[in-house]
Amino acid sequence: LIANAADTPHAVATPDGVVWVQWLASSKAGAAGYDVLLSRSGDEGAHWDPPITVNDDGLAAEHGFAALWAQGKDALGIVWLDGREQAAAVAGSMPMHHGQGATQVRSNRFDRTLQRAADTVLDTRSCDCCQTALAMTARGPLLAWRDRDDKEVRDIVASRFDSGQWSDLQAVHRDGWRIEACPVAGPAVAANGEDVIAVWYTEAG
Q1: Is residue 88 part of a domain?
Q2: pLDDT (tens digit, 9 = 90+) per residue, 157-200?
Q3: Dist. CA 137–CA 193, nearest whole Å
Q4: How many domains are contained in the chain?
Q5: Residue 2 belongs to some domain of the structure
């Protein structure tokens, strides 16, 4: 277990009464990395299934800042930041430092037996250490996160999960905040039916 004030565990219940919990743990692949672990309990927390690793790359990379939601009656949807491409770049001796690299936003579905589907990549270049945020709308989950372009502009974007697919990312607002470091400041979102409110920190302007 890794304690991180910015990257905290999450729990959600599915309609079948099962509680799912996600947390971080040091990677077995190396001391520099950490993984997203997932477990579930069908008896209100008295017993838990053996945890599984959400990210399947097996690299000593940073994985975290997850968001969870119930997907159907007995399955779980999860989104997380995935640093496998950053770790691969380091292994290839490309110059890197904290706050740089191609951190991805990935999503997957886990069924009642903790079997995974195939990962979906929502964003190939996101802010490395900014929280994701998810709200349930009348049409399904809406995810917001801090994007990162090749000029180090880190604005908030969003995507909606509808009919089993994520929509193309859209800017919530083009602040144009350029910062060559990770601000550790993701968005927050809340929804009521079709109405969504998003708030975020920025130093643009």
Answers
A1: yes
A2: 999 999 999 999 999 999 999 999 989 999 999 999 999 999 99
A3: 5
A4: 1
A5: no
Query: What is the domain extent for residue 89?
Result: 10-199
Tokens at 129, concatenated = 């250490």
Amino acid, res. 85: E
Cβ(69)–Cβ(141) under 8 Å?
A: yes
Domain assignment present for residue 188? The answer is: yes
The answer to whether residue 26 sits within a structural domain is yes
CATH code, domain carrying 169: 2.120.10.10
Spatial CA neighbour of 124 closest among 64, 189, 172, 169: 169
Q: What secondary structure, in 3-state letters, does the chain show?
A: CCCCCCCCCEEEECCCCCEEEEEEEECCCCCCCEEEEEEEECCCCCCCCCCEECCCCCCCCEEEEEEEEEECCCEEEEEEEECHHHHHHHHCCCCCCCCCCCCEEEEEEECCCCCECCCEEEECCECCCCCCEEEEECCEEEEEEEECCCCCECCEEEEEEECCEECCCEECCCCCCECCCCCCCCCEEEEECCEEEEECCCCCC
pTM, full prediction: 0.92
